[in-house]
Amino acid sequence: MSDVAIVVVILYVVWVAATVANQFHSWCPTWLRALDIFGLIPVWTFFAPNPGMTDYYLLYRDCLLDGSFDNWRKVELKPSENGLRLAIWNPAKRKQKAFSDMVSALIRLANERKVEALIVTVPYILILNFITSRPHSLGANSTQFMVMEHGGFSRDPERSRVLMMSGIHRLH
Amino acid sequence: MSRKDVNKLLAKALGSPDFRRALLQVSEEKATRTVRPCSCVVAEIPEAAQLRDFAHITPGTVMAFVAREGEPLLRNLTEAVADNNSKAFNLAANKIKQMEAKLSRNIAGGGNSAISQRQPFPSFAEISYANKTLTSLVYVDDVLRVHRHAFAYNGGHLDRKVFSMMEYYRADSRTPLTCLLLIRHPTIGEIEREALRLVPRNSSANNIGAAVVAPVTPALMAFFAITAEAAARFVYNEFVNFFVALLHGGTTTALTSIPDSVLNSEAFQNMLKSLPPEVTAAELVRLRTDILLQERPK
Question: In angstroms, how far is CA A10 from the centroid of its own chain?
């Protein structure tokens, strides 16, 4: 076997080893991922080993003139129908995708930043603008929104929690 | 008298010196009259009730019915709720609506003189929840024997024991007033219910609104739609301006994150302090633009 062949074999063996290591999030050394600037080490785990088991919900409520709040309202962008037509023509899915990306980005930022720094981020401002343009109660002059995580079919009594709660913002 | 004329009459009356004098008179009466606590009965419309049942109580409201003790209509209402008898309830509620209509006709027919004839009213009451006054100047008379008043309710926790009503009564008024409060939960889904559960309930007074639920008229809805649309358009324009500013003079993009050093700086804290209370989306866009333009490399 020639020297070049040996080098090639070693390279492939290292690549296979790095690929295997990269499938196990807890084992994989951080320096290995840092080295992979071209994304040459694949990850095939998709959502494993911790698949998403919760849903995020965006809710808002209005503050009335006397300081009381009306009930929380869930923001729903999904069309009420669920049919084959949506498999062929479903332009609303882009709106849903943008919305869900913004909520995910906001949660990530909320974990990293203080509240006062959060309010100048793009996801926060976009969501606030979106909430402002939603229907509001008569007599309301300000609003508040929150992102809630809900465990869906989980029977755990603590299956939901507040991930982010905004301050109160004027509507006009 | 047409509805338009009634509105004109009211608008004129509200700004008149007579009205200010009347308000002064009421506050004087309130300061000098003897006060007595009244009984408050709190009941709940069953959550299983359909929307068409108890149709006079909108979901998401607490409706107060105020009358003199022993008033048969109030007894009918109480019994109807206790028996979950929507038909009997609607019958009694319709009679109260007829009384209200009669009172409106009397005022509209009599103009200014009818309004002035109504003063001074015999006794009036104030309904409160904990330390929060929900409404004051509730009164009943021979025409309107039962007064009803709706308060917005978000479905959160309410402590029945802290509802109260105080009557500012005249010396000749023997029979005290009494109040029936009917709570109807809003129609909310599981997620909204969870949200209510998660938000701390230390301030249950925020779950009930003192403001009257305003009637939804097409004109009012159109006004709100136009206002909301204008606000959204304004923010959109702000974003467009922001992008144009960046395209023409900046090397950064809208999604550029503001460095932590800037967010921790005193200048940023001062900018935050200079913001008006309950800042709007448009004001936040302006603040972000200011920060990015300040930070832009020369």
Answer: 40
